[in-house]
Design a protein that fits this description.
Blueprint (H helix, E strand, L loop, with lengths): L2 E10 L9 E11 L4 E5 L6 H9 L6 E6 L2 E2 L10 E4 L11 H10 L9 H14 L15 H13 L5 E5 L7 H18 L2 E6 L2 H7 L2 E6 L2 E6 L1 H6 L4 H6 L6 E8 L2 E4 L2 E5 L6 E7 L4 E3 L5 E10 L3 E7 L8 E6 L10 E6 L4 E5 L5 E2 L4
Parallel strand pairs: 3-8, 3-9, 6-7, 7-8
Antiparallel strand pairs: 1-2, 1-4, 4-5, 9-10, 11-12, 11-14, 12-13, 14-20, 15-19, 16-17, 16-19, 17-18, 20-21
Helix pairs in contact: 2-3, 2-4, 3-4
The chain binds adenosine-5'-diphosphate (ADP) and magnesium ion.
Magnesium ion binds next to helix 1.
Length: 365
């Protein structure tokens, strides 16, 4: 089932005189296609959870409409929306077993939705199998690892067969290895069930790795929506470019003169169709090529070996960050004793931004 947000806004009125209202979500419109997993991504406080709570009905929008399929659910209470919700802190009932925790939402079904005892147990076992905790049904939450507890929370969210699954930073409490494993699990479960899913995270790598589409937010405003790779390759503005990618994009001051990009006095690349102007230049770490005759001269600070690749750390007067970090194949043989290092650049890894508005400036290819 598709999920449609139409001009959704949420304003929290200020509590103290003289302070402004908080616009947590500002005019958010988006259609999530049926059966897709969408990653809602942005720094802390940008309005991700508020958006999720409006989708599930725990918070009411100040403006706009929400549709599940063709049904307007804007004023429908949460229990009638058919959403499954998973939080960062699992929120399991500590005194109940895993089985009882998963059963609980079914026991609360009323009227026509009421199920027989056998049906409830059958469903519980099914979802427990799906998230691979069927061998743990008699344990209490305290007898489980963090990753297992989160699986129970996911099972509990799925047992009512929700129309939409909402996950709010579900992996944040797990250690690095479990985080990786559990995110792959979530992807598998989502694919197997085909439930339209919104996954909230502040971790760009997490969102990029499991989402069909990502929505990047800043201060309540959607910055860009698209397939992860598209957004990475073709960011709409400097904020999005900086938010996606590890190591992050390198940012330098530059200038376009006569169709040529200059960094300092060095002529770097032809940039067709760009008017003369000062620009902010973003260079992805994988966009550097070691080249004795390359136009970009940097001062070498160090080389970090990462196995297959090396990360070369250098400085440049025009850099807006303390260092420039490039990723170079270990075989390319960096002279670690050199003072200076010279690069040529892969044109499609060099992005131009308006020096003041920080909007992307397209370059003709
Ligand atoms: P995120 O989940 O992206 O970290 P939130 O959606 O929780 O962000 O919050 C967005 C903004 O709305 C923040 O500035 C936050 O302080 C504010 N906010 C969230 N909930 C409330 C509330 N109940 N009352 C007042 N302000 C709130
Ligand atoms: Mg949040």
């Amino acid at each position: 089932m598709k999920l449609v947000l139409e001009n959704i806004t949420k304003v929290f009125p200020n509590r103290n005189k003289g302070e402004e209202d908080v616009v947590a979500v500002n005019n958010f419109s988006f259609e999530i296609p049926d059966g897709k997993l969408v990653g809602l991504l942005g720094p802390s406080g940008c309005g991700k959870s508020t958006t999720l709570y409006m989708i599930c009905g725990l918070q009411k929008p100040s403006g706009g409409k929400i549709f599940f399929g063709e049904e307007d659910v804007t004023n429908l209470p949460p229990e009638h929306r058919g959403v499954g919700l998973v939080f960062q802190n699992y929120a399991l009932y500590p005194h109940m077993t895993v089985r009882q925790n998963i059963l609980y939402p079914l026991q609360n079904l009323k009227g026509d939705d009421k199920l027989s005892k056998e049906e409830m147990l059958k469903r519980t076992l099914e979802v427990a199998k799906l998230v691979q905790i069927d061998n743990l049904l008699d344990r209490k939450p305290s007898e489980l690892s963090g990753g297992q507890q989160q699986r129970v929370a996911i099972a509990r969210a799925l047992v009512k067969m929700p129309r939409v699954l909402l996950l709010d930073e579900p992996l944040s409490n797990l250690d690095a290895r479990l985080r990786l494993q559990t995110r792959e699990e979530i992807r598998r479960i989502q694919k197997e069930t085909g439930i339209t899913t919104v996954f909230v995270t502040h971790d760009q790598e997490e969102a990029m790795s499991i989402s069909d589409m990502i929505v990047v937010m800043k201060l309540g405003i959607v910055q860009q929506i698209g397939q992860p790779q598209r957004v990475y390759d073709d960011p709409a503005n400097l904020f999005v470019a900086k938010f996606l990618g590890t190591p992050p994009i390198n940012v330098l001051k530059g200038e376009v003169r006569g169709g040529m990009l200059f960094i300092g006095e060095e002529a770097i690349l032809p940039v067709k169709g760009v008017a003369d102007q000062p620009v902010t230049v973003g260079i992805r770490p994988e966009g550097f090529v070691l080249d004795e005759r390359g136009p970009l001269h940097c001062q070498l600070s160090g080389v970090e070996v990462m196995g297959r690749d090396v990360s070369v750390v250098a400085t440049h007067e025009a850099s807006l960050n303390p260092v420039i970090r490039s990723i170079i194949s270990a075989e390319s043989g960096v002279d670690t004793t050199a003072q200076e290092i010279r690069y040529s650049l892969k044109p499609h890894k060099v992005l131009l931004f308006h020096a003041e508005t920080e909007e992307r400036i397209p370059v003709e290819v």
